[in-house]
Write a structure and sequence with these properties.
91 residues; mainly alpha
């Protein structure tokens, strides 16, 4: 039960942050995804590559879900409508 309360407190805190903060956190997952896969091209050991992938992929997923939690349903709908309006004006 204590763990459930901790997660609820974190969710409530994240939900109180602004829309702009949510967008920034959500966009921060892009470099983490890029790093998590780009590091495979480095000449390092397989064990280190695996560890780096787990770390950066975990950071990407954390940023993604935290950004969605900050935005909430209305924020995600707002982003979708903005994205659709931007795409409809292109030639």
């Amino acid at each position: 039960m204590a763990l459930k309360n901790i997660f609820q407190k974190i969710k409530n805190w994240l939900s109180g942050l602004s829309f702009r903060t949510g967008v920034i956190v959500l966009l921060s997952c892009i470099p983490f995804y890029a790093i998590s896969f780009a590091q495979f091209a480095l000449p390092i050991s397989i064990g280190l590559k695996s560890a780096l992938w787990v770390i950066f992929f975990g950071l990407a997923k954390t940023a993604q879900y935290s950004g969605i939690c900050i935005l909430g349903v209305k924020g995600v709908d707002r982003l979708k409508s903005w994205w659709k309006s931007k795409r409809s004006y292109e030639p």
